[in-house]
Amino acid sequence: MTKNSSFKTLLMGFLGGLTAIVLFFEFVNPIQEPITKTQSDQLIDGKRNTPSFSANFSGLNTTDFKEASKNSINSVVHVTTKVVQTTFQRDIFQEFFYGPGAGGKEYKQFGEGAGSGVIVSSEGYIVTNNHVIESASEIEVTLNDNSKYTATVVGADPSTDIAVLKIEKSGLPAIALGNSDDLAIGEWVLAVGNPFNLTSTVTAGIVSAKARNINLLNSPNKTIVPIESFIQTDAAVNPGNSGGALVNTSGQLVGINTAIASQTGSYTGYSFAVPVNLVQKVMRDLIDYGIVQRGYLGVQIKNITQELKTEKDLPNLKGVYIAKAIEGGSAEKAGLKEGDVVLKIGTKEVNSAASLQEEIGKMRPGDKVTVTLRTAKGNEQIKEIVLRNKEGQTKLVSKEEIKKNVALGASFVPLSKSEKEALNIDYGVRIKSLTPGKLKSLGLKEGIIITKVNNEAVLSVDQLASKLNETNSGILLEIMSESGKRDYVGFGL
Asked: Cα–chain-centroid distance for residue 189?
């Protein structure tokens, strides 16, 4: 084959291929005109038209956060803490010759921490998280105008992770308080913080859930009774924002930002805030008394899961299940029993242990609360319960009593009926816990029973508190061990 014939063959092949391509696009797959109208996906004139969509947000109520930010940023402060930790370094060589502790030295280690806080009073009261100021030896507050003040701790409540600080400054821009009970899931909120002295940061999100318990505040040694009923949001909150404000779109405080759901310590999707209605009660108690006056129902409770519903043959998943009514507690005295289900506290429905704890956490000893319940037999009842503190008292504790209780270093609980029968007595109170103070220095232990004060029988925790507080001289206690052995101890206050 010649070169000329080869070229002709190649040219004819190329032209044939080109012709096939042109015929395909002209007749087999014709180009359609672009669709410009929004249509349903249906056949029109024998052809299927794919619908085109255009977004139209003109009917939506878009939220403007400028006013909320303006109303809140000046009320959020930066909190800096200094912490001093003392460590003991052993001298093994000296201990070998002279015994344990010989030759050892104490060393001080200095650290710093930071967080945010919220001005709640023009007179200098600031709310923050307990974990922000815990163990601090010095606390400094920086306002939004960069002025700095030394702060003192008015009081702290590990059970809710709330603390109150005070600075000596009046005329401060106090934040307006909202109502966390009115907060709805899906509602917009702002997280306002003052981390790392960056003046202020504002992030937006929505309320994802309410009454969340994330087991954040459980203490390993069970020294506190945690109250976790967090507002969950997707507003970005990082560690420096702890203690800052969660506000609604009016700039009103609805929560104190406390925690984030994270494995790294940085925000990864969810944050949690203590509801302001609970914060207000804790804050007021700390300012007025220095401690939280907390009322208790005296029950052990469980969330009603599908498994518990089946096990206990419950009609539905509503309410909170009473696993135990503590002997001598408020609930037991009002007739509540194991197997009862709490449906409402007051007028508010409770469907989780967290929501029940939040409602009771807003109340004080001596408060009367109406409880709607379904009994173990299936009957619906309404009970009025008088709340008591953990010592079984119905009265509030005064600041003077608190000072004496601190000096004594003890908390007390009434004896149960079974304890009285076992010891063959009909009076006395038991030492529940001890901290450094008079009773511990005398060698008394937890579990010891105080039967008499100055030769007068102790019939209740209230009476013991009254006797101790009305006495300004020497005190003689008759005590009894758990085995029934009696003894006497005396001391002065």
From this structure: 18
